[in-house]
Design brief:
Elements lengths: L12 E3 L11 E3 L1 H7 L13 H4 L5 H13 L4 H9 L4 H11 L20 E3 L3 E3 L4 E3 L4 E2 L3 E2 L6 E6 L2 E6 L3 E3 L1
Antiparallel strand pairs: 1-2, 3-6, 3-10, 4-5, 7-8, 8-9
Helix pairs in contact: 3-5
Length: 174
Amino acid sequence: MPCPLCSADTDLTPHVPGPEGTPFQAVALCAPCLAQITGTDAPDPAHWRALPTAMWSDDPAVQVLAWRMLDRLKAEPWAQDALNQLWLDDDTRAWAEAGRHIDVPQHRDSNGVPLATGDTVVLIKDLPVKGAGFTAKRGTAVPRISLVQDNPDHIEGRVDGQRIVILTQFVKKR
């Protein structure tokens, strides 16, 4: 079965478009849609080009997710056009708008620039690495970072062959 938002024909994972306690059903999503909806990855406008079709689904949960992503992408002209065309009944619109205010953790570097999985960052301070017996020096590039999902202040990366957790306040995006 294809992803109801992007039409990718791949494995799907259930996602309930909160807030917690919402009585509506889960939606099965592909990994890229799920990562971008939950904030693990930054939204990629090219990935969401199927939303103008998905937003007409009969499933209210799909409509809600389509509305939320279009709202996040409304700086894109095509997304703003689709958002202007999308009509939702009062209950579904209230559900969609309630989710707009759910704080999705956003990982940001020391300058406030959003970080995404796979980015390269540079250390802005010498950092002693506990348990590894070395200091990660200022100016060290850390390629292909991973975001710590439950904590927007932490990222993971490899320095001198060691996988370490780094505070985002001590890095800048390259």
